Amino acid sequence: MALLKITSPHAHGPTSTTWVMQQVILATIPGVVALTYFFGFGTLTNIVWASIIAVISEAAMLKLRKRPIAFYLKDYSAVVTAVLLAIALPPYAPWWVVMLGVVFAIVIAKHLYGGMGYNPFNPAMVAYVVLLISLPVQMTQWAAPLGSDGFEYISPITAFLNNFGFVPIIDAHTMATPLDVMKQNSSLMIEQLWADNSQFGLLAGKGWEMANIGFLLGGIYLLTRKVFTWHTPISMIAMLGLMAAVFYDGGSSASGGSPFFHLFSGATMLGAFFIATDPVTSAVSVRGRIVYGACIGALVYIIRVWGNYPDAIAFSILLMNFAAPFIDHYTQPTTYGYGKQK
Length: 342
Fold this sequence. Notes:
Strand content: under 5%
Largest sheet: none
Protein name: Ion-translocating oxidoreductase complex subunit D
Keywords: Cell inner membrane, Cell membrane, Electron transport, Flavoprotein, FMN, Membrane, Phosphoprotein, Translocase, Transmembrane, Transmembrane helix, Transport
Enzyme class: translocase
Main location: membrane
Number of strands: 0
GO cellular component, one term: plasma membrane
């Protein structure tokens, strides 16, 4: 039987940049629903406002660069950047903080390097780190979760007005995150720390653990849709869990937290499935993705426990974005028909 001689590329389905970005946005829904239920409607207002600013910024840069605006806006890449940054920000961040972050992500972290496909660092994480370093007060005012002592239901209208400074939410409705509390603890056993702080839940923090489960479900959905492979997220989660297990001392005052605490606190699952898997800024070889993800997981634990910041997803991913080309260089697969180099 004669074989057809067909050259690459070989299409395996209706995959396109637009389809991939739409799937990513769709997969964030379970996590966003959990964040909204436990922390109020601030996350939704952040997403709407950030998306509007992202589209305007993207269109302005495309206009300046003399690129077809409608063609590039339809790929949804700017909206994905806005959604991921908005999820990472505190739910009731001021409007100007959200706007500043999105403009920096689109203009500086994306278009300054040539647009989508050319940026060496994840734009959303670049903007997040810039905001965290420049505006630490605004970036650490997280709302009290449902079930904690400081929680108060905030309606969508109040949330919207608060984001724009018309109805400011008082400080009593905000509190430190479980990662902050764990990092600052130096005297209480973990069991006592859990009993004395109402924001701790079953595994990690109230709201946080359910949000991480939501983003985990979204990540599994993306895996089943073959948006990315399992290598980066699973290796990151496995290494973070391993590091936490190795250094967990059973719950003393010097403990950094259990493996479950680290896996379901902060932005662990969001980072593993939605940010570390960015095809532009991550490693591309199979072995490279495993090394890349494992290094992110190790860095997350190191910075959380021994560094200056309670959550380290953004810093860890940016550091490994920088190292991704180096990893790919030393993990290239052997070319078919050739042996390994000695």
